[in-house]
Amino acid sequence: PLPDASLIRRWADRRLGVGFDQLLVLLPSSAADVDRDYRIFNADGGEVEQCGNGARCLAQRVGAADGKTDVQLSSPAGIVAARLLGGGNVTIDLGIPQFEPSASLVVGSELAERYRIAVGGQDVEFGAVSLGNPHAVISVDSVDQAPVGILGAAFQREAAFPHGVNVGFMQITSLSRLRLRVFERGVGETPACGTGAAAAVAVARRWGLVAEHVDVELPGGTLGVAWPGDGERIWLSGLTTEVFEGQISV
Fold it and tell me: Contact, 186 vs 230, CB < 8 A?
């Protein structure tokens, strides 16, 4: 059986438990054309739809174990195709970015490139997109000065996002590079967010600010995102690193 929310919170505790932002559970395949299924739980115990970096790590593990370079994984957000490029580098297909308000959970809004709401005592402009999970992306002059913890937490209390939202703070540095910090729902700010990186590029490209291939610099490292444009699939690439291996008695 899958661990319950209280057990996940105990494991996620960085002082008394293992310590993590997300728990990904690898399961047997439910379909003939899929190598494995997986489920994703945030540190607060809540289940979510997708985790881009987590999917890359699972693909690396499954591919290495099965002797494959191409891996198909099934997530709550759909099928994820992954390719192992060697040296721990993995690229995954995150599907077609969905900008409709119903997909990104911007309740009560008409489809727009930019939205505005009063949140955290200020008027905030943002883009919204779903990569299987909801993202709001805010353009800032400096990610170093951005109120990530304050504004990211305030977004979680907004009626426009009844299921919470991942909030990206994006600083464009060139057509092919941007800096990003992400406040993840159910976790807080994390060193890196794969779907957050893809969401930032999708929004920035829709706003005409970046090219098709973009390096996204996060506190935890750099990810590569490739997106030709509307109606096309978006790809996320980067290194995976095994930190340690252990066992838990349930």
Answer: no
For residue 180, the cross-strand partners are 170
- Residues 192, 221 contacting (CB under 8 angstroms): yes
Instruction: Give the CA distances from residue 160 to residues 88, 164, 247, in Å, rounded to whole numbers and listed in that order.
Output: 39, 9, 40
The tens digit of pLDDT for each residue in 80-138 reads: 999 999 999 999 999 999 999 988 888 878 899 999 999 878 899 999 999 999 999 99
Instruction: Return the structure tokens found at 133.
Output: 């999970």
Asked if 81 and 70 count as a contact pair (C-beta separation under 8 A), the reply is yes
Q: How remote is the C-alpha of 108 from its chain's centroid?
A: 24
**Three-state DSSP class for 68?**
coil
- pTM score: 0.91
Q: Which residues are catalytic?
A: 51, 193
The identity of residue 87, as a single letter, is: G
Q: Which residues of 117-137 are buried (b: 16+ CB within 10 A; e: fewer)?
A: bebbeeebebbbbbbbbbbbb
Cα(59)–Cα(91) distance, integer angstroms: 9
Residue 177 tokens read as 């590079």
- Give the CA angle between residues 51, 57, 61 to the nearest 5°: 140
Cα–Cα dist 111/115, whole Å: 9
